[in-house]
Specification:
The complex is a heterodimer of chains A (483) and B (443).
Chain A lengths: L44 H12 L22 H7 L2 H4 L16 H18 L3 E3 L5 H18 L6 E5 L5 H8 L3 E5 L9 H7 L4 E7 L11 H10 L3 E6 L11 H4 L3 E4 L1 H4 L14 E3 L11 E4 L5 E4 L16 H37 L15 E4 L1 H4 L5 H10 L6 E2 L8 E4 L7 H20 L1 H5 L12 H6 L9
Parallel strand pairs in A: 2-3, 2-4, 4-5, 5-6
Antiparallel strand pairs in A: 1-7, 6-7, 8-9, 10-12, 11-12
Chain B lengths: L7 H11 L28 H12 L7 E2 L12 H7 L2 H4 L11 H18 L3 E2 L6 H16 L3 E5 L4 H10 L6 E5 L8 H7 L4 E8 L10 H9 L3 E6 L10 H4 L3 E5 L15 E5 L12 E5 L5 E5 L6 H4 L12 H37 L6 E2 L8 E5 L4 H10 L2 E2 L2 E2 L10 E5 L6 H14 L1
Parallel strand pairs in B: 1-13, 3-4, 3-5, 5-6, 6-7
Antiparallel strand pairs in B: 2-8, 7-8, 9-10, 11-12, 12-15, 14-15
Helix pairs in contact in B: 3-12, 5-12, 6-7, 12-14
Chain lengths: 483, 443
């Protein structure tokens, strides 16, 4: 497709502000004005509508394709939450209205949403309190790392390290490093669990925290998780729960009960808010009571008369993580989602998510290597190493799936599994959809034996074929330029 | 209400394929001692019930006040096509375009967004978006620290206090030395700043227009910053760039800002859009996703996520940033918004904001006791001094149906009588007149 800049025509304008109703003012002095006008595309409204509509049709999405992208929880996003977030009473609220005198009273609806969501998330996870400010999962991790630092600092305890397993999401070590920590990486043992001996050796009074995903990125729940937490606590370290995989545990286990001290939740994963092509998400951080004084400000409180207010009076708070209260529009959608599902719906979510993943595992394990043959939780991780012997790699399998109308699983992650294929079906996909996907996966396994090139030449049915990524990186072309 | 399609028969057939009797068998790895101590949540509700109760809650917000509050977040008109196009599920229910062959729509849209940000700011390259203007400023500061290997950052106090507070929060464990240069008469105090600018300085941060609405040309200061080997960082209001000198024209190394004004609703603080654009030589220091154009095996143009070796999923703790999810859908809205307006519409938007604010200054300056501060030119926001406490005036104005501005005493000591007033293209002549009449009555 042409770039929107290439559809430009001088003299066209898709939108006009009409005649001005105020008299012309003295112009701004030339010194402050831009000399060169921005070369923006100028098109009719229909041109613009057609351009972006046609672009949208080049994407796979949850609404058009099965999207078993492991670790991303690409479940169905209910439509009604979009409608709720667009209510003008919510969408037109200026975030500074509560700063006007008595302003909390101008935002009672929004504050009640924030208060209500914090209470629900606390009960779901067993945490004592939440900040809703973090705007994505990684942003929550960074907030968590800063809370960890504040906690130790307050105790006069300078600790240098954060421990992560080698199967962790890249954001874990990255977030801890940005907060100023050095990273210790613990290998995964042959049984698929974090190597406890190595863990024990690395734990000491220099360790500030242990960051874990549970179930881990192999989709496995570690039955010794409590022991891991107890060991960390005995060394004075905090336990951080990466909530990326919380969908598996709803109503089945709570991070707070297991012994985690703080955590984030990806609302765009577990609580059904759309991923938006890469965001916006929301990554609220929950903490135990020991960490509560350090939470970012402001916090929403309920007064004795039942009204809601913003409270800034937390002298030990780490400060501002976001300009205001987080991605309110996303928080609101998650709130609506949780209210609709209710207790039973949330428990059922975990059950069916786990059922779906185990069904994929059971049907595919004859065809693909399963590096750790265990009951999985919400996702299962295969290796395409058998297929790779015939030249069919995880990437090729991904491209063939695209040709057949399925979004590929996450590939080459976790890094500890060669040729990894990480499949997370989610609870909203039917048995028929899973069967159709599994049948294609079986077909690929057969082709890998009999006719590998049928897989390696994919995709054939897409708007573009395989793209030259090396060229993209070596000769960066990152923007249109006026010819 | 839930969205699970399974029938009882589906479940029993699936269980038998797995080889277990019941779903609970799949949770046997979770020891009984770790089962929830409590899970006391409300019962399920229908879509109708939840919609109705949230509709009622939305009615408890005073969203209908005539809005003259800005302070970095502005009430602009959003054309219907922005909602309708960004509301296409093929966009909003996709995820990060890791698989380019089935994500060309998203990738091309982000490439177009990056191009638009470069055109607006006059910079060389843009990333695919960050969370908001504040975190974008933090990331810009981190680039400067890495690039220079220095530890000192100078902040002009015309930079929003919200953003300065965020910078302090994010760096509390990184032993960065901050210097804040107070503003004089709402303007950057150049002499004072030069006193602190030295060979240890990593970055100097300005905002244009600044928090008080003052418009400036920082070209001279940027030159001084460069003479000392530091980086000049700007936080800018994108709508103003339809008119104002760009960060690129002033020579800034990094331009950041809050993109909310480009077709994104105020929505009580988010989701918003952090944007960042840099000079070419800082490209590999940039945080976040970047989309690049390339060719496919048949020579056709296509788009991919590129330069990913900067990122956390490859580089882990050595990445330039920990960001993973960004604000892609908000970036898309900005790209659609700008494409609808086009060159002419975007200039018109900036001019209209300027004209309306100038008209408001004129009308308000006629009220006895109200002093409109005119020491600097402004864009669409300006400061007035009232003969009484601004927060009290604001309170009385709410009763008259106005959110009449931001009382500066909330953020700045000694400014209790000052009010910051924003006038966007949405405010009519009539509303501005009524604002003046009502203000006259309450002070």
């Amino acid at each position: 497709m042409k770039l929107i800049f290439e559809e430009d025509k001088e003299g066209r304008q898709g939108f006009s502000y009409g005649a001005s109703d105020v008299p012309a003012a003295k112009p701004l002095p030339e010194k402050y004005r831009r000399k060169e006008q921005a070369s923006l595309p100028s098109l009719s409204e229909l041109d613009v509508v057609r351009h972006f509509t046609n672009l949208s049709r080049l994407n796979f999405s949850v609404d058009t394709n099965f999207y078993p992208l492991g670790s991303c929880t690409m479940k169905y996003n209910p439509k009604f939450t979009e409608r709720v977030a667009a209510f003008e009473g919510f969408s037109q609220m200026h975030p500074l209205l509560p700063q006007l005198s008595g302003g909390g009273m101008l935002a009672q609806g929004s504050l009640e949403v924030l208060y209500g969501l914090e209470k629900l998330l606390s009960e779901i996870t067993g945490m004592s309190a939440f900040t809703l400010q973090p705007m994505a999962g990684a942003h929550g991790e960074l907030t968590g790392a800063m809370l960890i630092a504040a906690y130790h600092k307050k105790r006069g305890d300078r600790r240098k390290y954060v421990i992560v397993p080698d199967s962790s999401h890249g954001t874990n070590p990255s977030s801890a490093a940005i907060a100023g920590y050095e990273i210790k990486v613990i290998p995964t043992g042959p049984d698929g669990y974090m190597d406890l001996e190595e863990y024990r050796k690395n734990l000491n009074t220099d360790v500030a925290a242990v960051m874990l995903t549970c179930p881990d990125t192999l989709g496995i729940f570690n039955p010794r998780i409590k022991e891991i937490a107890d060991m960390a606590h005995a060394a004075g370290a905090l336990m951080y729960y990466d909530g990326a995989n919380l969908n598996a545990l709803l109503g089945k286990a709570r991070p707070g009960d297991i012994g985690f001290d703080l955590m984030h939740i990806n609302l765009h994963k577990t609580f059904g808010t759309p991923h938006g092509g890469g965001g916006p998400g929301a990554g609220p951080v929950g903490v135990s009571s020991a960490l509560e004084p350090f939470l970012p400000i402001s916090r929403v409180i309920r007064r004795a008369d039942g009204t809601f207010a913003l409270d800034y009076n937390y002298p030990e708070s780490i400060g501002y993580i976001a300009p205001f209260y987080g991605n309110f529009g996303v928080l609101l959608k998650a709130y609506a989602y949780i209210l609709a599902l209710g207790k039973e719906g949330l428990i059922r979510t975990a059950e069916i998510a786990v059922l779906n993943a185990n069904y994929c595992l059971a049907r595919l394990k004859k065809y693909y290597e399963l590096p750790f043959d265990k009951v999985c939780m919400h996702e299962c991780v295969f290796s395409a190493s058998k297929q790779a012997e015939n030249g069919v790699h995880a990437l090729d399998i991904a491209k063939y799936l695209i040709d057949r109308g399925f979004h590929p699983p996450t590939i080459y992650f976790p890094m500890i599994v060669k040729e990894a294929l990480m499949i997370e079906p989610t609870e909203t996909e039917s048995k028929e959809t899973l069967d159709a996907f599994i049948d294609i996966m079986i077909e690929i396994a057969a082709l890998a034996k009999d006719d590998p090139s049928a897989v390696t030449r994919a995709p054939l049915n897409t708007p573009v074929k395989r793209l030259d990524e090396t060229r993209a990186a070596r000769q960066p072309d990152l923007r249109w330029k006026r010819p | 209400m839930n969205y699970i399609p399974h029938t009882a028969e589906d479940i029993s057939r699936m269980l038998s394929v797995i080889g277990v009797k019941e779903i609970d068998d799949l949770f046997k790895d979770i020891p009984a001692s770790l089962r929830p101590k409590s899970f006391d949540l409300p019962a399920a509700k229908s879509e109708f019930e939840v919609t109705r109760s949230l509709r009622l809650l939305s009615g408890k917000n005073a969203s209908g006040l005539v809005n003259f509050v800005g302070a970095g977040f502005y009430d602009h008109f959003i054309p219907a096509a922005v909602d309708s196009l960004s509301g296409r599920a093929e966009f909003y229910t996709a995820y990060t375009p890791y698989q380019p062959e089935c994500s060309q729509g998203w990738l091309q849209a982000i490439y177009e967004y990056q191009s638009i940000i470069c055109e607006l700011t006059g910079m060389d390259v843009s990333n695919a978006s960050l969370y908001d203007g504040g975190t974008a400023l933090f990331e810009a500061m981190m680039i400067a620290l890495r690039q220079t290997g220095r530890k000192k950052v100078i902040l002009d106090s015309g930079v929003s206090l919200i953003y300065r507070t965020m910078l302090y929060t994010y760096t509390s464990n990184l032993s960065i030395e901050f210097v804040e240069i107070p503003v004089a008469h709402g303007q950057s105090c150049r002499k004072e700043l030069l006193k602190y600018l030295d060979d240890k300085t990593a970055a100097v941060v300005f905002q244009n227009p600044n928090f008080f609405g003052a418009v400036d040309d920082y070209s001279d200061m940027v030159e001084e910053v460069h003479r000392r080997g530091a980086l000049a960082v700007a936080s800018v209001y994108p709508v103003s760039l339809g008119m104002l000198k760009t960060p690129g024209e002033m020579g800034f190394d990094i331009a950041t800002g809050e993109g909310q004004s480009l077709g994104i609703p105020l929505s009580f603080g988010g989701p918003y859009l952090g944007f960042m654009a840099v000079r070419n030589d800082l490209l590999r220091q940039m945080p976040g996703r970047i989309v690049g154009a390339t060719v496919d095996s048949e020579g056709r143009r296509g788009f991919v996520l590129t330069l990913q070796t900067r990122e956390q999923h490859i580089r882990r703790h050595k990445a330039t940033s920990n960001i993973c999810s960004n604000e892609a859908l908000c970036a898309l809205r900005a790209a659609i918004f700008i494409s609808l307006l086009g060159r002419g519409g975007f200039r018109e938007l900036a001019e209209r904001n300027y004209q309306k604010a100038e008209f408001a200054k004129d009308v308000l300056s006629r009220i006895e006791g109200v002093e409109v501060k005119r020491s600097s030119p402004t864009f669409n926001e300006f400061t007035v001094c009232l003969p009484c406490r601004a927060d009290e005036a604001v309170n009385r104005m709410v009763e008259k149906g106005f959110a009449c501005g931001f009382p500066l005493g909330r953020f700045y000591k000694g400014m209790d009588n000052y009010l910051l007033i924003a006038v966007t293209e949405k405010r009519t002549k009539e509303e501005i007149r009524r604002l003046a009449d009502s203000l006259e009555a309450v002070i």
